[in-house]
């Protein structure tokens, strides 16, 4: 999600790295305060020994250690739609096809649409989109934990799990304290999105998530994680889905 936000800043808004670093610095002072936002700011500022920014010199092909893949496999086995982590893993797989992508970039047409809106306004949409997507991703993660607990007859303390991550993990953030509060208030909470605090945050930010996904689609910037977040949100809040047609077809 953070990489996609960076990509949108760079390719949709045409921002320079020092400007992006300032944005991430501001974001780190608010509800997005986290280890990953902090190091993203520092990475964007970092210059190589030749005085030029290091980030553009790093090859855009990511590997993986397997944690995302294992989570995706578990999600499929338990039948839980952990779509954001799935898309993050597949985005890494796609990034690894560097030579193919270079060839495709010369053959396949993209969008001719250019961003012509208010830059400051879009950056605020992007901030809220990142926050909304983060809520959705954690909601999915806790859905998987809850289903695994049900199947395996585990008694998990979800609030304590959130605090454990806050202690010293790469995903540590202020945000995890809000998750702890949600599960302390209601240990039987079926989904984080249904907690009063988080449902209110979604009310405030879901329209910004739509703006970010729409702008990415219109300008031809791949944003699979943001798109997956929105698709899950709209599916989850739908009283009726078209699965009746699927069942009829089967």
UniProtKB/TrEMBL annotation:
GO terms for biological process: D-gluconate metabolic process; pentose-phosphate shunt. Keywords: Gluconate utilization, Oxidoreductase, Pentose shunt. It holds the Pfam family 6PGD. Residues 1-250 form the 6-phosphogluconate dehydrogenase C-terminal domain. SMART domains: 6PGD (SM01350). The keyword Oxidoreductase applies. Pathway: Carbohydrate degradation; pentose phosphate pathway; D-ribulose 5-phosphate from D-glucose 6-phosphate (oxidative stage): step 3/3. The keyword 4Fe-4S does not apply. Its EC number is 1.1.1.44. GO terms for molecular function: phosphogluconate dehydrogenase (decarboxylating) activity. InterPro entries: 6-PGluconate_DH-like_C_sf, 6PGD_dom2, 6PGDH_C, 6PGdom_BS, Pgluconate_DH. Belongs to the 6-phosphogluconate dehydrogenase family. This is phosphogluconate dehydrogenase (NADP(+)-dependent, decarboxylating).
């Amino acid at each position: 999600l953070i990489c996609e936000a960076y990509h949108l800043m760079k390719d949709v808004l045409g921002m320079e790295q020092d400007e992006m670093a300032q944005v991430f610095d501001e974001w780190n002072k608010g509800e997005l305060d986290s280890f990953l936002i902090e190091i993203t700011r520092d990475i964007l500022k970092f210059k190589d020994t030749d005085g030029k920014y290091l980030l553009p010199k790093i090859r855009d092909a990511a590997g993986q250690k397997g944690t995302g893949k294992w989570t995706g496999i578990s999600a499929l086995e338990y039948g839980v739609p952990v779509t954001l982590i799935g898309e993050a893993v597949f985005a890494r797989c796609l990034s690894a096809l560097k030579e193919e992508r270079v060839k495709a970039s010369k053959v396949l047409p993209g969008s001719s649409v250019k961003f012509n809106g208010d830059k400051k306004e879009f950056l605020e949409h992007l901030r809220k989109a990142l926050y909304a997507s983060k809520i959705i991703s954690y909601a999915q993660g806790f859905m998987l934990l809850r289903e695994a607990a049900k199947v395996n007859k585990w008694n998990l303390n979800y609030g304590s799990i959130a605090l454990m991550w806050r202690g010293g993990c790469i995903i540590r953030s202020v945000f995890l304290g809000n998750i702890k509060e949600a599960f302390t208030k209601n240990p039987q909470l079926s989904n984080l999105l249904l907690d009063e605090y988080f449902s209110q945050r979604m009310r405030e930010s879901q329209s910004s998530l739509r703006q970010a996904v729409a702008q990415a689609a219109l300008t031809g910037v791949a944003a699979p994680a943001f798109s997956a977040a929105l698709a899950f949100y709209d599916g989850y809040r739908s009283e009726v889905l078209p699965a009746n047609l699927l069942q009829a077809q089967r």
